[in-house]
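Field reference: sequence -> structure
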Amino acid sequence: MEDEVDRLVAAWRRERPDLDVEPLEVLSRVSRLARHLDRARRLAFAEHSLEPWEFDVLTSLRRAGAPYQLSPGQLLTQTLVTSGTMTNRIDRLAKKGLVERLPDPSDRRGVLVRLTPEGRDRADQALAGLLEQERAILGELSRNQRGELAALLRQLTAPFDNIPG
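Structure field:
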């Protein structure tokens, strides 16, 4: 089965036989897959009236477990945005009733951001929709193939995530 990347690689091999274009065979497919995944994610989130950044913040809080709260600093670490951006995001989510700010009992000057029941429901529903979209993308891959692919991708991405080993 030939795909668009096969045609692209063949054209480059014909036009630039002096270059090793082998990386394109993997990374062009990863890039194309990322575009499809981005579309699927946006669709899943839109069905629950969420933007991707809203999903990221809400699910960071949801994954924290009961009582579903984190400090703004912890949210920064998980979402990789600046403190100004996070403040803006928390403000917007609070205005929608999806999170609330509470005083941090261990730090008089600190605050905690807590998921509201509506925020928790919206995060849970959006996650279920996302997983449905992602299963469709994985298509006919067997459980074993999915595991092999996950292991290979982990090997490629781990250095970027600062994971030892």
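Note: DSSP finds seven helices and three strands in the chain.
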